[in-house]
Amino acid sequence: MLDVARLRADFPLLAQQENGRPLVYLDNAATTQKPQAVLDAITDYYRTTNANVHRGAYDLAIRATEAYEAARATLAAFVNAWAPEGVVFTRGTTEAINLVAGSYGRANVKAGDSVVVTAMDHHSNLVPWQILCQEKGATLRMVEITEDGRIDLADFGRALERRPKIVAFPYVSNALGTVNPAGQLTTLAHAAGAVAVVDGAQSTPHLNVDVQALDCDFYALSGHKMLGPMGSGALVAKPELLDAMPPYHGGGEMISRVWDDHSTYNKIPHKFEAGTPNVEGAVGLAAAITYLERIGRERIAEHEQALAAAAIEKLTQIEGVTVYGPRGRSDRAGVVSFTYGDIHPHDIATILDQDGICIRAGHHCAQPLMRRLNVAATARASFYLYNGLDEVDALAGALVKAGALFGYVPA
Amino acid sequence: MDTSPPDPQLSALYQELILDHYRRPRNKGTLEQATHTVSLNNPLCGDEIDLQLRVDDDIIKEVRFIGRGCSISQAAASMMTQLLKDKSLPQALALADRMSAMMQGDEGAARDKTLGELRALAGVSKFPVRIKCALLPWNALTDAIKS
Description:
The complex is a heterodimer. In chain A, about 40% of the residues lie in helices and about 15% in strands. Chain A is an alpha/beta fold. Chain A has two domains: about 5-25 and about 295-405, Aspartate Aminotransferase, domain 1 (Alpha-Beta Complex); about 50-295, 3-Layer(aba) Sandwich (Aspartate Aminotransferase, domain 2). In chain A, the strands form five sheets. Chain A has a seven-stranded mixed β-sheet, sandwiched between helices. In chain A, helix 4 packs parallel to helix 5 (about 125-135). The two termini of chain A are about 35 Å apart. Chain B is α+β, with helices and mostly antiparallel strands. Classes of the chains: A alpha/beta, B alpha+beta. The interface of A and B includes residues 343, 351, 370 and 404 of A.
């Protein structure tokens, strides 16, 4: 386990109290807290380096551009991108996937084609494909999940028989914590002639991600789920694919030459970065990556797996609690989704909040998955490097209190 | 393990009457001859309600609902259906206003006997994120009447 007490000292917000209790923040799959190093990087950027990037001829603007491009190189190295120009900064995972659907998808998917998604995809890796398929008259095929919350590989194989143009799936499920065999799924997608789009929102913060080893074509990630600022994120893609794709947003920065009625476009990645970018977001994200690398992603993943295993063990001891997702330790990230008898997850979240415990309750932007689990909502605790076993105990203790308050009697 | 007693605001929120309506909702089901039907959901949390009224000569003769959601939204729906029977449409809209006032913390509304058992939900006003739960069935009612 990591030295949680020492790590927590790096996160100013975690020293706060909630409802008079020490804050127990267990909603890390939604967003993570920020270490002082990230806050400092953002402040320093504005205090010493701020100017618009890729425009000014003066030294300050050159330094701002260098800081922005250095952040791109840091992120590229972190996920082992094919090249720094294969990293397009976006507002986050959602925008990155919309970019692929709106550009690659619109250029390559035609009427009668199919696009494959899975029943455990977040709405952000589903709705953009629905919009694309509706616009093109293409078919959207949703791959089923197994009882224990894994992608059903037999159904995945059947979906590929139609030779889809695009196969999209999450590396790690935000609602179940399942770590999917992303490399294997990509190989199968390629064999069927499709490109593979990986939703990396929940994997990048927690696993040692190597996009070249996965050999996927597009990989989307969010900075705010990995200690970075909100509004930071990226699409990481094979440069030759990005080169061939039409632009996504039009505006400044993405152009080469502009005439009255048409334009030519800038090189990648700038072709996809219209307008003034979120430089503070990129700089803050780079600082977050430096912080994560100092600790080491293997150690972070091990720590989270230990917390998840402890939480599953504690929660399943409470009569009436059902935990969803795979039970194996190796193919499960630090996300524990559960229900407790007939106590609705929103009520659980309200009761836990009174003890300063923050969990998520709801459909987790995965309504098709909720229907398959036959629940309207679940409660979800999700861990990160600054959570400790004492917080797992606090969660279990507060749940017992919730049961008492609701007069929960096991069926 | 933490064995401190539950917070008094929580005990007020989850009192017996609310849990009883949650577990044994009144007027749950559908109407054969509904004059007003509306479905409403809260996209943020997924709570759902299908509300049906049979209105005759501006009087609500029957009310049924089908819902999925937290104890607050389902208890509010159950209590609302009891209260609405035999009320005129203007009376029903006036009750919706009183309910909304109670959720804003209006103590007069919280003592207003016309709200019947719904007064048990007064404690929700202390939990701002849950107010939308208690108002979901009332918003459905307002939509149904005004549509």
